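Hi Y.,

Following your request, here is the sequence exactly as I used it, all 244 residues.
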Amino acid sequence: MRLRKILSASPLVARVVPFVFFVLLTAAQGKFGPASAYWFYLAKTLVGLWLIIEIYPLVAEMRWAFSWEAVLVGIGVFAVWVGIDHYYPHSNELFQNYIFPFFKKIGLGFLCSEAKPVIPWNPNAAFGAGSALAWLFVIVRILGSTFIVPPLEEIFYRSFLYRYIAKPDFQSVPLNKFLPIPFLATAAVFGFSHNEWLAGILCGAAFQWLVLRKNRLGDAMTAHAVTNFLLGVWVVWKGAWNFW
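Below is the corresponding structure, written out as tokens. Let me know if you'd prefer a different format.
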């Protein structure tokens, strides 16, 4: 209850603090040895569930909603995410091949360091294929990305950020009001928070379209959940661990 009291300080705090805390736990993955990438994911999933329970009474728009548009968008985003993956450089490649060399060329290489190779999130490689721990973390990842990530991210990006860019008094901005600059900016921020930045931008635009069309957040949460679930199944089925 003490946490809920803190989160109830303002509508902004209720929508931003849980997301920031979740991001910090994500950043800690793998920082304390290779195995910490998996244990921290388990921890952040449990913490994320706790945060959702705490903010549920405070954020009226955080309610799941089901529609055929949400399912189609979720499937479509999954298809695009996988389908265009080999056709553009990812964020780590852009940094390694263009941004870092540019900084070095102009004598500012000290401001950044070379990007470390991205290590796929693969519990089979870490704990042994088919082991109990490997399956535990696979299941946790699929459940976490399906049921925990969508509410926290949609609340931050679609409920808060989109409307806050339009007006600091963001709650006065209707969810179904189309605003070009917030639309593009939110899609871009959402996109570049992923290594697959181009797919992320298209994904963010599609989820925002759902919110605008339905005048509620729940359909975007459902679409996000469908996309993440299908992506998780694809990763395990095809061994495409690079998507994790």
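The chain has one domain: 64-243.

Thanks again,
Q.
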